Every structure is written in C-alpha cells, then in structure tokens.
Amino acid sequence: MKSMTGAISTSNQKSKKKKKKKCKAGLPSITKKVEEPLDDTLDALSLDANSSRHQLGPTKTKPETSKLCAGFVKQCAHSALQLDPKCLNPENELRRIFGYKVVKSFEKSNPDSSSRQVRGGRRGAHHSRKTILVSPSEHWPRWDGSLSMEFLETKDGYHHFRYVHSSYYDQAQRAFEAAKAIQDLNGIASILLYHPYHLDSLITMADYFKFVGEHQMSADAIAKSLYALECAWHPTFTPLQANCQLKINHETNKPMFTTFFTHMKNLDRRGCHRSALEVCKLLLSLDLDDPMGGMFCVDYFALRAEMYAWLEWFSEDCKSDRSLWLFPSFSYSLAICRLYLEREEPSKDDDTSVRKSSSADLMKQALMLHPSVLQKLVAKVPLKDQAWTNILKHAFFQSEKTGSPSLDHLINIYVERSYIIWRLPDLQKLLRNSALQVIETLEHSSSDAKDWACVRKEAFSSENNE
C-alpha cells in the first residue's frame, strides 16, 4: 500500500515539472444630516418601495468587517437558508450541465487514481454510507466511528450540537499536534495511515496538495473530511431545515467550518456554482454569527447560479437595524438581479413588479453610495473602452479610498471575488449608462454627492465597525 508520505514525494516531483428606506429606519440620525431631496431617494431604496415605508425589508474577512454582517443572518427566516439536498452534491450539477453520459464517460476515462495515495487504511471492497454532501469513493476505507455528535440544547428555536472525539480520535489529535509543532508534514501524512478520517490531518494535506498544484488530491482530502463529518451526524441533526447550530466557539466544531469553506471554494473552481451556493447557505445557517464571512460571498454564488429571485428574497428577508443593500456587494449584485428578472418578466404588469425599483435606478444608487467600486472594477476586469477613461476623469469617481478601512476592505473583497461577472457586455452597458446618469445628476445638483457621502459615513461609522 502506498502511504501518504509517498504521495507527498510524488507530487513534489510533479510540481517541479510542471439603500433602501430601511436606511432611514435603521439609521435615524441620517435624517438630520441629509438634505430633504435625498429623503425621496431613501424612500425608493428598497426593492419593495411601498412596504419599506412601514417595515424593515425582509474569503474570510477581517474580524471587524465580519462583525458588520453578524446581525443579518440572525434575522433571516429559516426558509431563506433551507437547503435543497439534490443541489448539495456537485455530481448532480455536473450531470445537469454536461449530461449523464458525458460525466460517466469522463469518470471511466479518469479513474480515481489519487484516492489510493490519499486514503490510508485497509483495502477491500465495502459498502459506503450514502451521504448528501459527497459521493464516497469505493476506495475509501470504512468509516471508523471515531467522530460523533452530541445534542446540547434547544434555544430560540434552534437545536444546538457539537462534535465529540472518541479516545481513538484523541490519540490521532495528539499525534497531529506533535507533528504540527515541529512542522513534520510526513508525520501528519502518516497519521492518516492509521486514522484515515482525522479532520485536521486531512485539511492540512489538502492545503499542501493545493500548494503543489495537485488540486484533485486536495479536493479528495476535503471530500473525505466531508464524509467523516456527515457520518458523525446526530440522528436529530437536520441541517437541511436550517434549524441547527454548530457554534464555532466549540473547539471540536472548528474543522467543520474550515472544511465547508474550502469545499465551497473548490466547487467554485469546478464551476458548480449552484452547489457552492447551497454550501454557503449551510455555512450561514450552522452559526448565525457567520464566522467565515459567508455573507460576503453568498451574492456572488447566487448570481453565478442564476438564482436572481432567491437573492432578492434573501436580501429582503434578512431584517436588521441596517439594510443589506448598504453593503457594496449587495448594492451592485441586487442591481444585476433586477436586470435579469426584468428580462424574465417583461410582460408582467402587476403591483409587485411596478413597485420594484428598476435595475438602472439600483445601479445608479449603488454608484452614488460606493463610487470607488467603479475605478477598481475598470482596472480589474479590465474595461479598456475610451468611454471608461472619460467617466473616470470625473472627480466623483477618482477617489480610491472611502475613509473607512472596513468599507475599503469590503469593496476590495467584492471586486476581487466578483470582477469576472462584469465581463458580460450587458452588465458593462448597465454600469456605463448608470455612471453617465450619475455624472449628469451631479452636474445638475452637486449637493447629491455630499448627501450620499453622509449616508455612507453613517452606515459605516467607526461605532458600527468596532
């Protein structure tokens, strides 16, 4: 049997070769600072402009920016984060995209050769457990039961759980900590020969394989972690219903968050954006404090998966003291959602459609609220048309900094994660036309820039960012 140590040396050789009205309700001091004309604009910021007058609308990040969205997930209804089990498994999505025969043919021509290097443990065919997060390979060792889950309490409608280590697992954990202390990668690899489902060792090897360019082996290690995590689920643990909590402050729960976050990024790399969205929703639902910053990428996955209506619903469903629309990612993403939803419902003229702000209005408001995003997008996409050069000459779009380090960080996260979306001609047209409308508006009323700066400062004040 080939050990993980052998796999390390082999891969080393290979690598060498190769704003809504909600603003007004949630930010009461804005009305004192903003001029009267902006009040009407604030009233229209909600996707549902009528209802907003009466109620609030329904990468790991730095700690201070992660806290900004902490309250939103807590206010989301269970239904917004409920999962579709069929969409959790990327194999189902690949079959929908390419067809069953194509995927099956690819699997036959590319056997799971990496699994023999990563697995450790015994040989021999056996029946693996049926799981929803991942399809276990027939080469994987039998689940050893070294990890389990215990129920803690039911609080505020949520069932709280935590993972529990067996004495067998604790033995592997001590060996891992010893190898980690002296940076012995081969020692960590050897742990998996006897403890094939030790999470920290699998995560470490996944990071190593990714570093040397062995992305498939990295994904396989994460898949085994997913399998172990699911096999350990408590009989009453129902994550699909978004009513369970596995708080990260329990030490034994931490590997789960790392595994899910890495798995989500792997799905994105494979183009399985619908599955990535479901995993992101799972991350959000399992700890309402959002320790992994899932709120800063859920909009991206929703757009890539073409779940436009869901993203609008989600943003309206998350009630908090501030509107999700105020964040750079959601302000621009909701404008994109509206653009595609307008095309899907061109003939509808009911009250619901009429009350929705148009994509042009939402994009204009996003640019007024976060103008520094435009310059970063133009540079990152990149957008080389002369029209963009002329637009960026306007003083309103020349500043790269907002004056708030946390907001600047959020903008950088958004641009780095979502710039590829802006390579679509339709979105570039919407962005360009909206930017020209902003310039035209400012030429008629220069005070608007100060008004929006006031809103931005109030929404991302130092008190909110502490």
How does this model look, in words?
This protein is mainly alpha-helical. The chain folds into two domains: 19-59 and 308-465, no CATH class; 85-110 and 127-276, no CATH class. It is 59% helix and 4% strand. The protein has 28 helices and three strands. It has helices spanning 4-17, 22-26, 30-33, 36-43, 63-66, 70-75, 78-81, 85-88, 90-98, 100-109, 115-118, 167-181, 185-194, 199-211, 215-231, 254-270, 273-286, 298-304, 308-317, 328-344, 351-355, 359-369, 372-380, 386-392, 405-418, 425-444, 447-459, 462-465; strands at 147-155, 158-165, 244-245. It has a three-stranded mixed β-sheet with strand order 1-2-3. β1 (147-155) and β2 (158-165) form a beta hairpin. α9 crosses α10 and α22 (359-369) crosses α26 (425-444). It is elongated. The protein starts with a helix and ends with a helix.
